[in-house]
Design goal:
The longest helix has 14 residues. The protein starts with a strand and ends in a 5-residue tail after the last helix. By secondary structure, it is an alpha/beta fold. The chain has a 6-stranded mixed beta sheet, sandwiched between helices. It has a 4-stranded antiparallel beta sheet with strand order 2-1-4-5, with helices on one face. It is built from 10 helices and 10 strands. The protein has a domain of 169 residues: Rossmann fold.
């Protein structure tokens, strides 16, 4: 399919003897938002960490199967992991701005890659903050510490920091769980806008949030990807009884 950005085929993941993910098949299209739902500890966060190889940092972790991104297996020997993490950005549950200015947070990754031109950096920072719907709030505070921003602003700053690297995919691991309802609403609106430029995978505990922001929803349970389909269908006419039971609140 021409629109596919990412394909996961028959993926198993083990921590030592424990199998955390079981025979996962998953795909993500260009300019699509997919939500991952399911009870705590069922493999959602483990799965998104597979997609930018963050599990490489865990010595006991072993993976079989394939993760194909634009024709290349990201676990193949020719894959440059630092390049992969540029192409697949990550936004964490708790905002984690660096202890530096707003400007330097956004410029950091590109500076690390050797971008020195001040004019280009300034343009990149402004463009990234605009895409993260934060520019108007911080344009007069670029030299101020990122720690002085509110929680919701810090999270949008982290999204801007990710955008600045021109990723193809942005992974979001419960990006609004530490935020108040107003800040959550801003991030949800932002996801809708970001889809024009990026593919997005969001892990969320909120089924309402999944219904609002995603094109497709995946239901994980005990390491299995039970069901994955159009969000509306998954919520209104699920194929699997376990999905129906979770969505209707019978467990989880």
């Amino acid at each position: 399919m021409a629109g596919e950005k990412l394909q996961v085929r028959n993926l198993d993941l083990y921590y030592g003897e424990f199998q955390a993910l079981k025979s996962i098949f998953f795909d993500l299209d260009n300019n699509e938002a997919s939500a991952l739902i399911g009870p705590s500890g069922c493999g959602k966060s483990t799965f998104i960490r597979v997609l930018n190889r963050m599990n490489d940092l865990i010595p006991s972790c072993r993976i079989t199967g394939e993760v194909i991104m634009e024709g290349q297996d990201i676990y193949g020997s020719s894959m440059d992991v630092s390049e992969l993490r540029t192409r697949v950005g990550m936004v964490f549950q708790k905002p984690n701005p660096f202890n530096m200015s707003v400007f330097d947070n956004v410029a950091y990754g590109r500076r690390m890659q050797g971008m020195k031109d001040k004019k280009r950096l300034a343009e990149l920072v402004e463009q990234s903050l605009r895409k993260a719907a934060l520019w108007d709030e911080v344009k007069d505070r670029l030299k101020k510490s990122a720690q002085s921003l509110s929680g919701g602003q810090q999270q949008r700053l982290c999204i801007a920091r990710s955008i600045a690297m021109s990723p193809e995919i942005i992974l979001m691991d419960e990006p609004t769980s530490a935020l108040d309802p107003i800040a959550t609403g801003r991030i949800e609106e932002l996801i809708g806008e970001l889809k024009r430029d990026f593919s997005i995978i969001i892990v969320t505990h909120s089924m309402n949030q999944a219904a609002r922001v995603s094109d497709r929803t995946a239901f994980f349970l005990l390491g299995d990807l039970v069901e994955y389909g159009e969000t509306k269908t998954v919520f209104t006419n699920p194929k699997d009884k376990r999905t129906e039971d979770y969505i209707s609140g019978r467990f989880g």
